[in-house]
Amino acid sequence: MLYIIGLGLGDEKDITLRGLEAVKKSQKVYMEAYTSLLSFGLSADGLSNLEKFYGKPIILADREMVEEKAGAMIEEAIHNDVAFLVVGDPFGATTHSDLVVRAKTLGVKVEVVHNASVMNAVGICGLQLYHYGETVSIPFFTETWRPDSFYEKIKKNRSLGLHTLCLLDIRVKEPTFESLCRGGKKQYEPPRYMSVNTAIEQLLEVEQKHGDSVYGEDTQCVGFARLGSEDQKIVAGTMKQLERVDFGAPLHCLVIVGQTHPVEEEMLEFYKY
Amino acid sequence: MLYIIGLGLGDEKDITLRGLEAVKKSQKVYMEAYTSLLSFGLSADGLSNLEKFYGKPIILADREMVEEKAGAMIEEAIHNDVAFLVVGDPFGATTHSDLVVRAKTLGVKVEVVHNASVMNAVGICGLQLYHYGETVSIPFFTETWRPDSFYEKIKKNRSLGLHTLCLLDIRVKEPTFESLCRGGKKQYEPPRYMSVNTAIEQLLEVEQKHGDSVYGEDTQCVGFARLGSEDQKIVAGTMKQLERVDFGAPLHCLVIVGQTHPVEEEMLEFYKY
After folding, report:
1. Domain that holds residue B91
2. How far apart are alpha carbons B223 and B273 in whole angstroms?
3. pLDDT at A140 over 70
């Protein structure tokens, strides 16, 4: 059996009892390491918090490992119980459909243990999940690569009066440009997590380029940091206001507010800039 | 402190450790009873499973109680720890913003414990949560009341190639028409939960009435029953096919499939009719 287990958004206490049971009976426990490990008290040299909590070792599976060695993990799951831990929900912002398809194709039983994901936990700000349009991703701009396909999607959402959840870029274990060119042993960039501030800066740059007045400095937004953690920070304000707020440590995400109902506005008041 | 705690979608084991801790330290535990109690082993005359599990009594709070007596519950939370349990996530399909606003206005601290909700757990079928448009609700039609505002929303989603999550009507503790007219002690209709079959029947009736070819008998959909439970049932097929499927006990929901990516299609294959 391959258990794919959502850990939720906060720390080790956000696993469900069902998830914890599955971890306890698994012979091997893997954990995907490419969304965020920060909130789980993990560091590059150890998984101490979670391992102590579960009483068993965890194999950290970064993006390369999941893509390249998933086959081995799935084979283990033919005869053993194997747990694959995922921050948030297994089918939330980062989906693990590939893994499920590969496992099921090999006849391995898969059980998914759901949990909260950024996709539903943003509901806490009071904007109803019903009234969201398509979710967009904002990638880090570079000198030469400034993709802005999110602009058209935000435009459509706003024309329908819908809110837009913006997922902000995470760069973990990206090979350096030099090591890619040179070949040989890969070297990696330090991890980078996009802040609300950078996201807004990029959004405003794209608006200026296209000029369709989809949004602007005065557009109402909600910025989130460490959503679901005990020290989460949620601030509602205009783009101009939020661009100046220090949200602190990652992960961040951003909601561009569409048309609001009175009950949504009442909730937003508690988070006002 | 008022804890608003999501129970997730399955049974008593789907609460998070954080949620369970909060329940254990609360002096009073309420539970909202108007979404679904079925999966939690509750019956009209007792809350046995959950109460046994928590080792303390639970006060069942139906819609009237939450609306009328929330004030008393919030006042208790000024000096005590009070837990309010919610099926799914506190800000999922049924939102509890009202309660939060009232509590915060009275200066009561509120802590939300997130969990999986139908809004993110539908991701298990392989259709990416990114590619959903606005969520719609399908109400039970009556002889004289056949509201179809969902049709325009589905139309917009489909014109953008997006998937549509349809939440299906739940009628719990609805006063009978007679008792409303007569006044005095209220009497209630037996609970009703809309099936995938009824939803499709109503959807097709509305399409026939409007005739904009937004969808039809051959439109791909995914039907879900008891999502997140051990005996969940997920079937992908055309409206015509799913109309004939027996999904069994509630709760049901339905997704109308938009444009799909290859990896989405691979996952759907596992659920094909």
Report:
1. 2-116
2. 10
3. yes
Q: Which of B112, B123, B266 sits opposite A91 (nearest CB)?
A: B123
pLDDT band at B39 (very low <50, low <70, confident <90, very high): low
CATH at B25 = 3.40.1010.10
- Exposed (0-12), middle (13-18) or buried (19+): which is B102, by Cβ within 10 Å? middle
CA distance B219 to chain A (A): 21
What gap in Å lies between CA B73 and CA A9, rounded to an integer?
Answer: 28
In the block, tokens 């979670």 appear at A50
Determine the Cα–Cα distance for residues A137 and A93; give it in Å rounded to an integer: 10
What's chain B's Rg over C-alpha atoms? 20
Cα–Cα distance between B110 and A149 in angstroms, integer?
Answer: 38
How do residues B196-226 score in pLDDT, each as one tens digit?
999 999 999 999 999 999 999 999 999 999 9
- CB contacts, 8 Å: A165 with chain B: none
B170 and B40, same structural domain? no
Residues B56-84, mean pLDDT to the nearest whole number = 86
Instruction: Write out chain A residues lying below 8 Å of B91, CB-based.
Output: 120-121, 123-124, 126, 129
Shared domain for A173 and A132, answered yes or no, is yes
Examine the pLDDT at A67 and tell me if it is beyond 90.
no
Is the Cβ pair A17, B17 closer than 8 Å?
Answer: yes
Asked if residue A154 and residue A92 are part of one domain, the reply reads: no
Stretch A19-46: mean pLDDT: 75
Is the domain of B49 the same as that of B149? no
The pLDDT value given to residue A38: 57
| Number of domains forming the structure of chain B | 2
Best mutation site among B98, B102, B114 for testing chain A: the one with the most A CBs within 10 Å?
B114
CA distance B21 to A271: 27
Residue A134: which of B14, B91, B162 has the nearest Cβ?
B162
